[in-house]
Target: YqaJ viral recombinase domain-containing protein
Amino acid sequence: MQVNKHRVEPPSTSVECYWKKPTLSRVGTTLKYITVQQMSKKEVPDRPSTSALYTDFILEAKKRKLQHCELIKYQDIMKTTFNRAAISAIEEATRMQYKSSLWYEMRYGRITASKAHEVSVCHTPDGSLVATIMGAKIPDTIAMKRGRSLELSVRKTVSTTLNKKIRTCGLYVCQDNPMLAASPDGLLKDTIVEIKCPTKAKAKNNHLKNGIISEKCKAQVQLQMHATGMKKCYFCVADSNFEETKNVDIILVKYEDDYVNNLIKNLYIFWKKNIYPILYRSTSL
Model:
């Protein structure tokens, strides 16, 4: 009888010990945490990189001649570049700037230099900044009116001080980044000119303080230089009482390649997330 009992009982090595619990059940007791890798001993299969998968998808979609693929449309837009002839034609046709209807049309959906700093630090996807880029009307402030009324007079003063002729210019669309554009206040042979006319003495610090250009204005003139292909800028800030003093502070600003590359990356991210979707929805496939 005893012999038969031993025969029907399973070997001790085939029965799992009661104290051998799954590793996950120990979390919170003797084991403080567990990683995903520890939960599975299986090898994770190799997967293609995201960029490789994206490229393969685009190639296959084009091979099949898909007509309603958002990725293909986006890729085509991002590969768009403006040739020199087109850039020159737009610039020449928009030299009246705010008096030109084309100037407003070409700014639609583009991040302009005057908005560069604001865009680079913005984290609001549906605020007034996006609305402005998409053509919303901006209130005509006292500062804006003063800038327009004094610009010609300040330009003449700067021209006399530098002993150089300043010519007017229109909107420059960036050749390799057509979602960006800039409208300097004037051009010399190899230098752009940007003019500021603050209404109050304290407001001057918003543009220039202790001979140092503000971050907002730096982003503006750096993108202007990038758009025009020039490497220098005369940044000119008129006195708040310029009408009496005729005084203008003139600072020479040089192009900073690393700064501009980083700025453009930030502008591109904002445009991709917040502007492109609006443009895409507003056009039929």
In short: The mean pLDDT is 83. Strands lie at 111-112, 172-173, 180-182, 186-187, 191-196, 208-209, 212-213, 232-238, 248-254.
